[in-house]
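TL;DR need structure tokens for one chain.
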Amino acid sequence: MRLYDAVVVPPLWLFVCLKAPALRSAPRQDRIMWSMWMIWAVSFTIGVPAVRRIIDAAVGLQSFTNLPVHVLSLFAMGALFEFIREATGERAHRRARLRWILLGLAEVGLIVTFFASPLPDGETDLVTVTRSPTITVYWLIFLGYILYGVTSGIRLCWRYGRHASPGPTRTSLRLLGLACCSGLVYVVHRLAHLVAAFGGRELPGGVGVAAITQVLLACTLLLLVASVCWPFLAEGAKRVRLRRQVRAIRPLWQVLTESTPEVVLPLPGDLHKDAELVRYRYVIEIRDSALALSGHVSEQQREAVRSALAGAEPGGPEREATAEAAVLLHAARAERAGEPPRFPERAMVREGGDLDTEAEWLRRVAAALRSPATRSAVEVLRRSTEAAGPGATAGPGPTAPPGAAA
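>> reply
TL;DR here they are.
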């Protein structure tokens, strides 16, 4: 098997097989996409030299396999354009019928010109045969429809991609547009070879022409695979990131909700698997718990913690997270000890502009629960509370991660 076949064929069949089980309930766009990959998988498989020889021998006609390969490729191009139209939300119009009429005419033209042409032996790649006028017409029909498909795809990807919101959809459309651009380069390369041969000049030798054609086709297909897989890969990466955030925030959530169980909302069992919902729940309940506990810490005590950590390393946001972790731990201890709130309620958790920002901040605070600087700051708060006289917190503290507090 050629390197080209080894790079292209297995991923195509892998993609087809992975998508096949969910095909029955899939939306039309996904069924069109699967059909496109299935056609290409069959097309490239029968183009493998060993398979091609078997088919040619069975039919009894040398180079016959080139015809089904190119006929299937035109069908795949029609499916690609329909997939792009569905993906971009382009409405079908009356000219849509023209596209299918052109496809039918192109298929008929390929079949007629193929059987009217002098065919090379089965070991000669048809892309290098340009001396016959009918073969030239054959290639012009094939390349003409491919050119129509890729230019239409570029137009749609450019029109809708530039208006798409930043994210996986825009990236997918850009990759799809790049795949169409790579297909356009393939068409230009083949047309240049035909024009040069028609003018009596030769471009690089037969092996070079076939190799360049294979590289361009492989790049086009790999970009198409990337464009289709990107949203799924991005969604998978998002799920992994959400799970990591949930695991990182959970110790802080546990410390606070043990002291204020009333803020915890019941969540049905199945929803516990939704990392995005669990993260949202943790952020909201940490906020509510911190507000309920804020009456145990005065503004002066918070300033005392900041002063105690003024020279601590690392500085910046990590130092602020450490101060917030110490205040929350101290307030949770006071609540568990049964001390009544003595100060007005106020926000103790820094708020961000969006859920991602807040979750990232709470991850820092949760990580600071285990730091020696947090233990020192909690001790500062304990001493200041004892110095305040009656009403100071005492007794056992909340259950916290090992080393979170003295």
